[in-house]
Structures are given as C-alpha cells and as structure tokens.
C-alpha cells in the first residue's frame, strides 16, 4: 500500500491525497470537439443527425452505450460491437492526424505530483487504442503508474468500477484518492467510488457540474483550489 506521507513541492504540508486518478478526454487531452466530429460523421453515415445535446451526452459514455441510446435497445451485441468498432476507428483516424492539445496546466500538475511521489492513474471510458494514442501524442504516457480503459471494466461510468479498479491497481483505498473529471457521468462515478472529486469545466457548463456536487470546480489545472494545488 502507498503511504499517505508525500510532501508537496512547497514543503509545508503532506499532499492530502494518496493518489490522483484522471479521466482522459477533457481532463488530460482536449479532444471534445474531435469526438463530436467523429460522432457526427458516424451518425450521419447511419441515418442519424445528432443534436448538440446528444453530442454532449456522449461524454463519459462508452460507444456501445451511446449506440443503444441512438439506435435502440434492439441492437444485438454483435451489431453494437461492430458499430462501436467502426466509430472508434473513425475517431482513431482523426486523433492520429488532427492537431491535438493538452488541457492547460495538466503537464505541470502531473510533474508536481511525480516530484511529490503521488501515484497517478488514467481511468477512462476510451478504448485502449485511442487512450494509448492520446497519451502518446502528448508525450504523457509514461507519466502514469496505471492506465485503465473500457477494456478493463464491465460497467461504464457512472458505475464506479473503473475508479475502484484504478485505486486497487495502485494499491490505495479509493476514499484516499482525488479523481479529476469533466463529465457528469464521471463525477457520479467518482463520488460513487467514495473519492473526492475535482470537476473541470472543460466540457460541461459550470452550473451543470455544480448540480452533481463535486468537491471542487476549476476551469483547468491553472486555477486549482488550494487543497489540490502543489
């Protein structure tokens, strides 16, 4: 088990969390609009023109879950799997070729956590090929002690499974972790895991996230509240 005795870079106090668990899209990499483009292209190719609200509702959800919302619960598992692979492959092509950027301040925050000896994990609804490509494109892959994706869980967010498993892989209690999220379903998953939650307003409006009662809100990692900043 990791000991909760890490000291912040300021040297004045131990860091209040034993580990920090990060969602990926909208938290580490700014791919929200790229995801929307992929969903729009995919939807239209299959006779569905998604509204902006429908696109917003894809955040934090696995592709198979979105497909059943759009096309009905009558989709067989095989049909859903084939469509999900098509959509994820489309997004992968965009991710590999389009400009991408990290969420402001995330690199500096990760470096500060690393220097303080605080373990870090990615816990995302993304499929492995897209999660790994995202981190590789930013050069942040090695900044994490563990990386969990949709392939590692049975139940997607808002079920807490991915955060419970991430904490377990790091050897820490989920109640001792900070989770950084940007999506409504992700905040619900973090709170259900018993973790403290920082919600970033990179994807959802501030008032929408406030309704989910995260412990803290911030615009991005440049404006972290004092209990979280190093």
Written overview of the protein:
The chain has helices at 32-45, 52-56, 63-71, 77-97, 106-116, 128-138, 161-170, 184-192, 206-210, and strands at residues 19-22, 120-123, 146-148, 177-181, 196-200, 216-218. It has 230 residues and is α/β, with parallel strands linked by helices.
Give keywords.
single chain; 230 residues; 9 helices; alpha/beta; 41% helix
Task: Describe the structure concisely.
This protein has 230 residues and is of the alpha/beta class. The protein has helices at residues 32-45, 52-56, 63-71, 77-97, 106-116, 128-138, 161-170, 184-192, 206-210; strands at 19-22, 120-123, 146-148, 177-181, 196-200, 216-218.
Secondary structure layout:
Elements: E1 19-22, H1 32-45, H2 52-56, H3 63-71, H4 77-97, H5 106-116, E2 120-123, H6 128-138, E3 146-148, H7 161-170, E4 177-181, H8 184-192, E5 196-200, H9 206-210, E6 216-218
Parallel strand pairs: 1-2, 1-4, 2-3, 4-5, 5-6
